[in-house]
Amino acid sequence: MSGMNEIQRQWDDFHSYVERRDVIFYHVGYFSQTIIAAMADAVKLRVEHAGAVAQTRRKLFSSFIEMAQNIVHYSADSYEKEGNSEASMRHGAVFISLTDERYYLHCANPVNADVAEKLREKLEHLRSLTIDEIKLEYKETLRAETPADSKGAGLGFLTMARDASAPLEFELSPASGKDSGTSMFYLRATI
Amino acid sequence: MDNLFIAASPSSPEVDFRFDERRLSLKGESYPENAAQFWGDIIAALRRFLSEDTGAEMVTVNVALAYFNSSSTKMLFSLFGALNDKAKAGTEVVLNWYHDEDDDTIFEFGQELMEDFPDLVFNDHAVKSL
């Protein structure tokens, strides 16, 4: 009967790690519009339960949707069904943590080299701006023509930067082996 | 022309454009997978109504969107641009802009609209939080 509490022990290990890292929501796997809409419901409930005030909940929700839809649009790892080239399901990960009353939204997904370079340029630029400059650039982009290579009107990162309480943080790390040519893209927003 | 009704989905709003009553309503949340396509079709129908319309009476637009993602934001801007053109041409267009009383983001977007589209009669409606 040595295995009697084994399942419970596995859960305890897992929970203690999740608690130590202050994780309140986590998803890794494929992202599609349907999955995002279901997660959106779960995230709303979770942050409400965590006690976030309405304005924080709205900012968290907004950044969560932008991140999740970025994965659907730009992740280099897409789910291909046989005979179906519609790549509207792509692989990535997202988690939300809550430390000392601050919320952190993290996402990660692989990107192709050309996308990686554009992300680096865009995010380094955003990191150099003050919040007032971000708001100004948001207003200008809202009124400008949509860039041809954008599926989100070029406003996605600006929206996240505007809602965050600190500059967006990111890392790009080149993959090796069979995935060489792609990079892992990590993004963190502080709300 | 026919009225346009699109039922709400988990990630798209209810669209209730009663062209015959000159009353257009949007209600819900907007983060469809392809905002350019979702809103593009709606804007095309709206433009057709606005160009064919010969009535002189007021057009009322009621917008109660609790959330819209970045790509929807851009498309909404074009939608209000089309309405502003109609107002500029002499038809009174009233925009009732509903938002939660403490939702600064949607309130501020309304202010942007008011600034850019001065021909619309803009009414801000702060709704008490539920």
Mean pLDDT of chain A: 89
**What Rg of chain B is obtained from the alpha carbons, in whole angstroms?**
14 Å
Please identify the top-level CATH class of chain B.
Alpha Beta
What is the top-level CATH class of chain A? Alpha Beta
Count of extended strands of chain A: 5
What oligomeric state do the depicted chains represent?
heterodimer
Give the number of domains of chain B: 1
Query: CATH H level of chain A: which superfamily?
Result: Histidine kinase-like ATPase, C-terminal domain
Q: SSE order of chain B in H/E notation? A: EEEHEHEHE
Count of helical stretches of chain A: 6
Structure class of chain A: alpha+beta
Beta content of chain B: 25-35%
Query: What is the CA-atom radius of gyration of chain A, in angstroms?
Result: 18 Å
Give the ordered list of helices and strands of chain A: HEHHEEHHHEE
CATH structural architecture of chain A:
2-Layer Sandwich
Q: What's the number of structural domains of chain A?
A: 1
Describe this structure in words.
The complex is a heterodimer of chains A (191) and B (130). Chain A is built from six helices and five strands. Chain A has 191 residues and is an alpha+beta fold. Chain A has a single domain, classed as Heat Shock Protein 90 (2-Layer Sandwich). The mean pLDDT of chain A is 89. With 130 residues, chain B is of the alpha/beta class. Chain B has one domain: Transcription Regulator spoIIAA, CATH 3.30.750. Helix content of chain B is 38%, strand content 32%. Chain B contains three helices and six strands, in the order βββαβαβαβ. In chain B, strands 1-2-3-4-5-6 form a six-stranded mixed beta sheet, with helices on one face. The radius of gyration of chain B is 14 Å and the shape is globular. The model of chain B has no long low-confidence stretch (mean pLDDT 95). Chains A and B meet through α2, α3, α5 and α6 of A and α2 and α3 of B.
